[in-house]
Structures are given as structure tokens and as C-alpha cells.
Amino acid sequence: MTDGMESKEVPVTDGAESEGVTVTNGAESGGVTGGVEPPGTAVTSGVEPPGPAVTGGAEPPGPAVTGGVERPGTAVTDRADAVPARVAAAEHVVKEFVSGFGIAVPRGATTRSAEDVAVAAGGLTPPLVVKAYGPGLVHKSEAGAVRLGLGSPVEAARAAAEIRAALVGSGVAVEGYLVEEQAPPGVEVIVGAVRDPSFGPVLLVGLGGVWTEVLRDTALRLCPITEDDARRMLSELRGAALLDGFRGSPAVDRDALVKVLLAVGGPGGVVESLGEGFTEFELNPVICTPEGAVAVDARLLGPADVTPRERAEAPAPQDFDRLFAPRGVAVVGASTKRPNFGNMFLGFYRAAGYAGRLVAVHPTADAIDGVPCVPSLEGADVDYALVAVPAERCPDVVREARGIPFVQVMSGGFRETGAARLEDELLAAAHDAGVRLLGPNCMGVYSPAGGQTFIGGRPGRPGRIALISQSGGLAGEVIKVGEHRGLAFSKVATVGNSADVGPAELLRHFAADDDTSVIGLYLEDPRDGRALFDALRAVSKPVVALVGGRSAQGRRAAASHTGAMVGDARVWEALGKQAGLPLVTAQDDLIGALDLLDLHAGRQVPVSPDVLVIGPSGGASVLAADALDRAGLRLGPLPDVDLGLPVGAVPGNPLEIPVGPRGKPDLVGQVVTAVQREADRPYPDVIAHVNVQSFFTFGDSADPLLAYARGVGELQRELTGTRVTLVLRNAEYAPPGVEDELRVIARAAGVPTYRSVEAAATAVAVAKVRDQRRRA
Ligand code: ADP
Ligand code: MG
Q: Of 612, 616, 749, 775, which is the most buried if we count CB atoms within 10 A?
């Protein structure tokens, strides 16, 4: 018999040192063991956050805990090469903790020696389960430390002795044994959480118990979740039918499982209570039956070091107007001898016809490339300074910028190349000087109305599309290609490493910006994912995001099954669902989606996945249907009345009509107008597609095709409550210039154009995600 048997102490793994643990309440209240307290056995009781001490005042709201919580102090040893230093808490301690949140766990007791198991199990109802615990025992079954189906306390003691013999033989230290009642069989579900370095706690539910990792049938959400999130997570599982009763088995108690999800990831739940004190947590499995949900295993991995992450103070609400319309610009780094980035930017501003005060900073020169010089940023009297000097010199330059509201550091050579210290120094310099910093490692700002540019040439026409990009190069491409296609931007900010000004803050700015109606994002690693998540949930304007590097990331070292299954791609998916943020996967789709969102920004269409597709017959219609299906769109049936369709039309959706050089140019308009008039619920979206090639089979005249495009434009002008989208298939077959002319005609009527049904379907699907949000 070991120490601590009569105490109320939580038997942490190094029990001898656990005197300091004080449980102020709940010591008697329904702990893990449900009051099973055979004399002479240390029984887990009370609810104490197990594992590492909870710091930063993040005390679990339920059970009050005074004083530091003893940490088991056992470094996880298996998979140790892949896992950063962490501490694991013993299973019964974790179970006891979670039972304080209303999660059902089996009745059980712990002992230090195998011989005591029989006595400890006296009050338990067989069949019984015995498990060993101790440092290094993270995946117990794999180590042979779990025995199920034991018919009596004596049998349980024998099993414990066998486990001990086997583990001692393989050099694994055992600290004690947990004997507990065996829960009846049911559907095994994993409920877990991990701390994402950028987005914070993420909740996972998966089907399949031990098979979850193989089946990968999981659903994720960022914490805290709502009850609605919990229910949606369950219905997202491919195997959700298993919960509803399959092949004659009864349905499990879904509400009980929803309660477990909320108890772990909901407001005031386990995850929130642990605060910074966990890296991975899982209940694996939770056994679900018609009678309820029981967590038969619980695992908690805490950080070895729980010093709370320094939370940078949220910057004061910033007025970014001067960033996008500076009254003066200073360029630091231009050379009198060897043209460099600084000189290039001077050229950009001049080519763009910048009307404000433009100066170059140079210690001796009077002028560079015709631009007057000032000796230092001090007294430069500008709103914006662009710094293009070697990385080591940037902090000094920024220190001289006092009084200038915005400084952009173009130079690379900071965190992205491993020089995190230099970046910290740069940020500190910006704080000292009281300036807001863009970058480092970024290209700058573009704003046709405000004179800002970083792309060369004349700026495009001012528009209403804003873009925040963590890649300067990509932003430049989106602007140039987008403007070529007819898009018009209000403001574009490249944020590079986002040391200070980041995507979240700019998103909040654009959300309130009168010049902007739609917002695009290109992200790789938002520095503060949480703030971005919050900003995304708050913005009501249409937003679409392209996230780079989703597949490359996510292979972080993990000691739990949950940890191994939460990759970055899945976290972004979850964020997309929770924030109603449509995610696209290619640059062209980002441009295409922004175009549609912008052109149709003013239209309030019915919220429904339905689309009417109309165009010439053949395989194209069949393939169009497949493309829409892949994009998650629905080809709702045509109204069941006489639509007066023309000769050669095939009713259905896709609706096939004769479109070609000899067709009537206003045929699409007539048919769609009739359909929308007769429909109970008009289609929110119409995709008209045309085979450009067919118009040039017998001649070179573009007139019939241009007339067709005008017809589609007329249709849009008439149907103000419908989003019309035009697909110019095989547009490259048209004589030079015709495609551009078609785009101009369509755009003038507010119709976006695409080269493929796939591209159009992607853009329409993005708009529908935002429609959903409007309803929510
Ligand atoms: P591991 O560390 O290997 O995950 P577990 O505690 O999860 O160990 O036990 C392994 C398996 O044994 C579980 O997946 C579950 O199927 C079963 N099991 C464990 N404890 C119980 C219990 N109290 N009642 C019913 N089944 C149990
Ligand atoms: Mg388990």
C-alpha cells in the first residue's frame, strides 16, 4: 500500500510531492470514481486541472483551484524524437477533471500496486478493465497496458500483475493501476482538441475509435464552438449514419455526444479552462450508446513550459486613410550611382503621376532621378516612408521616422530567412518611434485614387475591390491581370511578414471603408489567426480568400491521435465554415470570384444553391452539370409549365437552346425571362454558356457573337434580382480582340465573364457562401 491513501489529494504521478495540491471544493462531489472509495485505496476525487499549472489567471471556472497544480512532470517518451518536450497527466487525473464538466466516465479506482487492485475493485461491478499508468505510457494498448473483460476483482488483480510483469520486462516504469467498470459496447468516437499555433484551440470529432486515424472521418471547428457547430460536426462525418442506427442497431444518444463536444470545446469547457495549459487533449474513445456517451479514455498533453505567450497589446484602432492616400511619400535607399529598388519606386510614383510631395532620402545628393532629396527621414514631412536599405540598417532608419504615420519596409532578410531577432528589433524601433510598420519583406500599397503604387505604369481606374496579400508578387499579378480583365481596385495592401500591421487589422479597416465593397485575401501565415478569425466573423461585406501552403503545412509533431489528424488545411476548412469564408484554391479563381462579387455586389438574390444553366446542346451541357455538382451547386428543376420554348430547345437544367451564328441573339433573354417569371422560386444565378468557336466556323465576322453578348447584357439589365454569368467557351478561337470586346459588353451590363464553366461555377459558389451568411 502506498502513501496518500486516506488523503483527498489528487494522486499525481509523483504523488510523494503532491502535498501542495489543495482542492477547495468538489472533493466529495462525483469525481471520476463516482464515490467508489474502498478503504486504503487512493481514490481520484475532486476536480483539478491535471498536468501543467494553469497560468495567467486562467483558472478553470467550475472547480476553483487554489495554489499551483502539481504537474506530473513526466515527459512523453514515445514518439519522442518527433515531439517537443511535453508533459502528460495520468489518465485517471484527466478523467476526474473532465467529469467536473459533466462528462460521464466509468466508475473506477487507482492503486499503486497490482496486489491492491482486488481490494480497490471491491465496489465496482464487473466486467472490469485494468490499465497501468506511468511516465511513457501514452498509448497504453500498444504497450500492453490495457486488459478488458475481467470477470471479478481477483481476476482484475491478476491482470494487473501480468501487465506489470510484461511492462517491467520491456523496461517501462509503472506508477499505478486504474481499475474501472467496463462500459457496454457502442459506437466509438474520438473527441479531441489541439492548440494551433496561430488559431488557438481546435476541436475534433471523429468516428471509428481506434480506426479513426485510418479512416480520417473527422470534423473540425475552432473553439469555442456553439451547439449548432457541434451538431453540424456530427452530420459532416461520412459515417454519420452509424450514429443513427445502422442495420438494425439502435440510434445512439446524439444529444449526449453533443453535450460532450460542448463540455470539451464549448464556452467554459475543458479547453477554455485549461487555457495555455494544454497542447493536445483527447477522449478516445467516447463510447456512444442509446443510453448516453461515456469517455473511457482521457489524455492530456501539456506544454513543458507554460509561461503564457506574450499577448501583444492590440493596437489602437488605426485610421489607415493616410496609408492609402499619403500627402507625401519619402523613399529611403535610392542610389545616385547604381539604380536599385529605391530608384525603381521613385520611377513608379513618377510614372503614376503621384501628385503629392515626393522626396528621396539621401545624405548628400540634392536630387535623384529628378526627385528632390532630404538628408534624413527626420523632417521629411510625409505621411508614408518606403524603406529599401539592407535589413541590418532598417531599424535605424525606422527610428528616424518619428512623426511619419506609416513606414513600409520593403527589404527582406528578417523572420522569413531566420532573422527573427532583427525583425523584433525592427518592430521595437517602430513602436519607439510611434509609427505603424508594413512588412518587412513586402511590396507596398496600391491605391489608384490615392496615388499609391508598387507595380509600375499608369494606375488602373479606381474601383471597389480591396486586396490584402502576404505576397507582394502575387498581389501585383492579381492587379495587373485583374485590371486587364476589367476589374477595378480600391486599395491593395501587401503585408509581407506582418510584423506590425497584419491582415486582421486591415480587414477591419476595409470592412468599414466607404470606397470598398468586396475584399480579397491572399494568406500564407496570418500572424494572429485568432484576430483574423474574429475580424472575418464580423465583416459583412463579401470576402474571399486564397490560402497558400495549405498542403505543405500541418505536419507538426504530435503525440496524440488528434494532434496527428489536425492539419492546417483542415483548420482553414473549419474556419471557412465557421466564418462563412469562401476559400478558393487558385489565383485565377481569386480574380474570378472578386469580379463576380464586385459586379453583383448590389443584388439581393434568394438564398439557395440553385443555378440555371443555359446554352447550346451536346456534351457541353452534360459536362456543365458535372462541374456545377463538383462546386456544390444545384441544378434545380425547371418550372413544370409550358415555357413556350423555341424549336430546337431541350427543356431541362441545363437548358439546351440553339445558340450559334444563325441563332436569334435575344433567345437566351426570352427563355430565361420566361423561366424566372414562371418559377415559384426564381433562380438566384443564371450561367449562360456559349461555344465561341462555333461562331467562326463559316466566317470571320464577330457580329453575331457580339450581338449574343449584348442579348445577355439586356437580360441582366432586365432581371435585376438575378446574377447572370457568361461563359465564353473556347474564347481563344476568336479573332484577336474579340474576347476583350465581349468582356467589355458584358461588364457594361454588370455580367462577369469566364472562359470555362468550372471557373464560373467556382465564382458562383463563392457568392453563395456569402449569401448563406446573409441569412445567418
Ligand atoms: P489507449 O491508451 O491504448 O488508447 P484506452 O484506455 O483507450 O487505451 O483503452 C484501449 C481500448 O480499450 C479503448 O479504445 C476501448 O475500446 C477499450 N476500453 C478501455 N477502457 C474501457 C472501459 N472502461 N470500458 C469499455 N472499453 C474500454
Ligand atoms: Mg484510448
A: 612
User: For residue 738, what are the β-bridge partners?
Assistant: none
Q: What is the distance between the alpha carbons of residues 447 and 356, in angstroms, rounded to a whole number?
A: 14
Q: Is 136 in the pocket of ligand 1 (CB under 6 A)?
A: no
CB of 139 sitting under 6 A from ligand 1: yes
CA distance 542 to 644: 37
Q: Give 26's contacts (C-beta < 8 A, 6+ positions apart).
A: 46, 47, 63, 100
H helices of 133-266, where? 140-143, 153-169, 212-215, 227-236, 254-265
The candidate with the shortest Cα–Cα distance to 215, out of 254, 245, 188, 177, is 188
CB–CB of 13/175 below 8 Å? yes
Distance CA 392, CA 377 (A): 17
Q: What is the pLDDT of residue 693?
A: 96
Query: Residue 537: what pLDDT?
Result: 95
**DSSP line for 385-454:** EEE-S-GGGHHHHHHTTTT-SEEEE----SGGGT-HHHHHHHHHHHHHHT-EEE-SS---EEBTTTTB-S
- Cα dihedral 159, 160, 165, 171 in deg (nearest 10): 130
Would you call 600 helix, strand, or coil by DSSP?
coil
- pLDDT value at position 68? 29
Cα 550-555-561 angle, rounded to 5 deg:
120
Compute the Cα dihedral for 544, 550, 551, 552 and give only its sign. positive
| DSSP structure string for 608-666 | SSBEEEEE--SHHHHHHHHHHHHTT-B-PPPPSS---PPTT-B-SSSEE---STTS-TT
Residue 133 per-residue DSSP state: E
554: left (phi over 0), alpha (psi -120 to 50) or beta: left
* C-alpha to C-alpha distance for 444 and 388, rounded to whole angstroms: 11
**Per-residue cell: 571:** 483548420
Count of alpha carbons within 13 angstroms of residue 730, beta-carbon side: 12
Q: What is the DSSP string of 89-121?
A: --HHHHHHHHHTTT-B---EEEESSGGGHHHHG
Judge if the beta carbon of residue 210 lies within 6 A of ligand 1: yes
Q: What is the pLDDT of residue 316?
A: 53
Distance CA 341, CA 328 (A): 19
DSSP 189-215: EEEEEEEETTTEEEEEEEESGGGHHHH
- Cβ 760 vs Cβ 733: under 8 Å: no
From 33, 79, 148, 287, give the residue whose CB has the most ligand 1 atoms within 8 Å, as the site to mutate: 148
The answer to whether 743 and 716 have CB atoms below 8 angstroms apart is: no
Q: What is the grid cell recorded at 44?
A: 481520484
**Distant-in-sequence, close-in-space partners of 219: CB < 8 Å, separation ≥ 6:** 204, 205, 206, 232, 233, 234, 236, 237, 574
CB environment 502-514: b (16+ within 10 A), e (fewer) = bbbbbbbbbbebe
- Indicate the SS3 state at residue 41: coil
Q: CA 326 to CA 569: how far, in whole Å?
A: 38
For residue 148 and ligand 1, the question of a CB distance below 6 A is answered with yes
Nearest CA to ligand 1 atom 19: 296
| pLDDT at position 521 | 98
DSSP state of 586: S
Q: In one letter, which amino acid is 327?
A: R
Closest C-alpha to ligand 1, atom 11:
141
Calpha distance 153→157 (Å, rounded): 6
List the chain residues with pLDDT less than 50.
Answer: 1-48, 51-85, 306-309, 311, 313-314, 554-555
